[in-house]
Amino acid sequence: MSLDNKINYPSPYRLVMIQTCNNCQFCENPQGQSYSFYVDLPTHIGFISCEKCKDMANNAVKYWNESIAFGRVKHLIDRKIKIYRSKVDEITGSNIEDEWMIYNPIILNYESDEYVECISNTRNLQRYCKVDDILYLNK
Question: Would you kindly state where each structural domain of the chain is located, as residue ranges?
Answer without folding.
Answer: 13-69, 72-137
